[in-house]
Amino acid sequence: MSIGVCYFPEHWPSDNWERDVAQMADAGLEYVRMAEFSWGRVEPERGEFDFEWLDEAVELVGEYGMEAVLCTPTATPPKWLVDEHPDILQADEDGTLREWGSRRFTCFNSETYRKETRRIVRKFVDRYADNPHVAGWQTDNEFGCHETVRCYCDDCAVAFRDWLREKYDDIADLNESWGNTFWSQQYDSFAAVDPPRPSPAERHPSRLLDYYRFANDSVVEYNRIHADLIREANDDWFVTHNFMGDFASLDAYSLAPDLDFLGWDSYPTGFVQDRRQGDATVPELRAGDPDEVSMNHDIYRGAKQKPFWVLEQQPGDVNWPPYAPQPGEGAMRLWAHHAVAHGADAVCYFRWRRCREGQEQYHAGLRKADGSADRGYHDAAQTAEELFDLDPVDAPVAILHDYENLWATEIQPHSPDWDYWSHLRSYYAAARRHGVQADVVHPETDLSGYEAVVAPALHLVDEDLAGNLTEYVESGGHLLLGPRTGLKDPYNKLHNAPAPGPLADLAGATVDQHESLPSQVPTELQYRGESFEYRTWAEWLVPEDAESLGEFTSGTAAGNSAVTTTERGDGQVTLCGVWPEADLADALVSDVLDAAGVARTHRLPDSVRVAERDGYSWVTNFGPADVQISAPEDASFLVGSAEIGGYDVAVVEAGAHELGVSIADD
Ligand code: GAL
Question: Residue of 336, 372, 393, 610 with fewest CB within 10 Å of its CB?
Fold first, then answer.
């Protein structure tokens, strides 16, 4: 378990470097990530290379007993390259070019940019192929950041047509698969298909979904160029990439096979402000929403089913959210422990030192702009001292998550309130409120090792997927299906049969009606005799070969079944037709966990989470109040004690379900 930092030696005079690196080593840091935006510094003119500064920085990192993680520098090509080849720029839907002067403006499908990428990446990796201080590489930086997965330039138009030619037998097959008789949208050839550019009414949902898939595949191919060159130069190096939080347009599962492990960039106080429904509470502005952060840990762990890295960890205040509150005292340490509890093997803070120039001057570092220690430095040093080696997380539960379902429901949300991430998190948070670890995985993952599987909005379902889920249940699995499941086929068209389509036999129930509802409409139901609330989405279920566990008690839906359950083989399937509010999600998920024999805690306070890894449990307090932990008498505390303060953490050698947690003042 290691702590690291992201460092930009090119921003500072060279006589600062040794002091900086010495201070990193003093804090117990083990990895230094560098060079992701360095192309302009390394190649100021075509063919004129200056690597000496980076050589020196890598050497210093090695001398001080740490290892370097280098990055391919392709997120920011130099101006001369764009002037030579303006065709490498991306275009918005309306054709506006994404200009040079920030980052991530180059097209993944540009043959010119791919050629330039090969040239510069080869230079970098060859330079360090035999360098003993380089541990591995990050490809590029945050593919798709600033909404750049999807480009609409002419190169993309050509590449999209080729992609369609590969996927469909002929144009008749495409017309049929998409359903192009609607509004006369038939094509007479692949050459006639364009990227979905602005149009007065909605664009065809099947066309959009394929465009999103195509754009994603373009990033997969582009990443592979980097990964192959890195491995060719030295196959002992690891290859990873820094993904983002709740990031919708890039399918992390599809890049995973080309990476040794996944990494991501965690900025908790930003995420609650700019990518989550609902206003952030005051404690969340200080430390973030633990479930929002950990669901991302669990996605990037789940995608490879192995430990991941936090390649960028918030170091203090950050520049890009609407507001920049100072994190709670100790929050930078809390986040690192929380990441480790969820399966991180390394946490690298972004960045070493607050930058004196450019776009991110209002972004903290572990050190202040004048070089003195900032709040995050002390937190990082303390965490480095507290970490110890651990086996990976062994989660009993899987939550199915799939970007294609996200895209399809985003293309036709059918309600301004629909939000795939929030809906997914309703179930995820219910497991986390009971201290249960969950891998967030792609639906095609082998599920046989999980006691329970939750599939919140498995929208696009074909016979193969239905077959796998049936096998999982019949061999003893417990499956909880959510609303919007099985409504459509993978082309984004309704099935002939009512939802859940190919899963209807397994669920023993079908959907008679669905409705989306704004917040002024009462949304109530009874589940196992108790009253609960739901939100946004309702499906009236018809139990055919299943038992109804509850009915709607409000609105036009009243009297119809809202939740059904049935036994299949050695297992059980529960179908929930609504987006549950927290109490209902808790009841549903707890019942499934209990039926599956998954041990859990009592319901934890909102700001406190417990996560188990390798026989140890982390109690992380994301709120300001003191927390009291009750643990078995012989359980020892490796970090902290039975009473922890605000934004503090304890690590105890015990199973999560053996712990009790309460807010000390309660
Ligand atoms: C990340 C990015 C970094 C830096 C950071 C600021 O998204 O990878 O380069 O911009 O945000 O918080």
Answer: 372
